[in-house]
Amino acid sequence: MKKILLLIAPLVISCSAFAQSEGAATASPVKASSGDHILAIAPIQFTENGVGLSFSYEKGIDKGGIVSYYLPIITTFNLNNNVDHGDHQDAMFYFAPGIKFYPTSSQGTVKYAIGPSLVIGAGEKTTSNYYNNGIPYLEYNTQSKFILGVIVNNSLNINPTPHFYLGLDFGFGFTYINRVGGNNDGLNGIVQSGFKIGYKF
Predict the structure, then answer these.
(1) Where are the domains positioned within the chain?
(2) Cα–Cα distance between 159 and 113 in angstroms, integer?
(3) Lowest-confidence pick of 84-93, 145-154, 163-172, 190-199
(4) Pick from 7, 2, 57, 8: nearest CA to 35
(5) Going by DSSP bridges, is the β-strand pair 136-158/98-101 parallel, antiparallel, or unpaired?
(6) What's the pLDDT band for 38 if we cut at 50, 70, 90?
(7) Contact 90, 50 (CB under 8 A)
(8) How many angstroms separate the CA atoms of 83 and 136, rounded?
(9) Average pLDDT score over residue span 117-122
């Protein structure tokens, strides 16, 4: 019996060592190729205000790649208002920190994510007033604008290579504060959508 145990023991030890080395070999490439930071630019960005661009940073905050911190900075211009209201393009700047949830983790070629973001926006809004006191004329009134609200983003994330990133975002939400001049209009719809190109590391 002792001889049998002496013969089996080295076999068990060698199999265990082999399994551990195989596990380390399969685990290390995944770790090496899975970055949890993304820097991206959206050359085409839309909001309820108009068209512009954005920059964003994303960082995974758990080992499983399920949850990420997301920070976009957005600038848009109301180009349609430029036609209707002379040269008033009504620029808006948005700061929208949020969280992304990846149901099947962020590691892979094509991944979907959803999550909420706080939206803080500041800029201006131009309105027009028509008067007819014998002589009709048009008057433009540009006022400061500030919004505070929440939005739920849906993201399609594409990683054709370990470091090249493509993304599509669409989000919809509402404002708690929508102040134009001194007046707060309260609830109002807000949207954002963009096509992103970036670097994953």
Answers:
(1) 37-200
(2) 14
(3) 84-93
(4) 57
(5) unpaired
(6) very high
(7) yes
(8) 20
(9) 98
What residues does 6 pair with on adjacent strands?
Answer: none
Name the token pair of 167: 């993304």
Least Cα distance to 127 among 142, 137, 110 occurs for 142
Token look-up 């211009």 returns 77
Instruction: Give DSSP secondary structure letters for 19-42.
Output: HHHHHHHHHHHHHHH---EEEEEE
Range 72-91 burial, b when 16+ CB lie within 10 A, else e: bebbbbbeebeeebeebbbb
Q: In angstroms, rounded to a whole number, what is the distance separating the alpha carbons of residues 201 and 86?
A: 45
Q: What is the pTM of this model?
A: 0.75
Q: What is the token pair recorded at 64?
A: 């499983």
CATH class of 37-200: mainly beta
Q: CA 14 to CA 61: how far, in whole Å?
A: 37
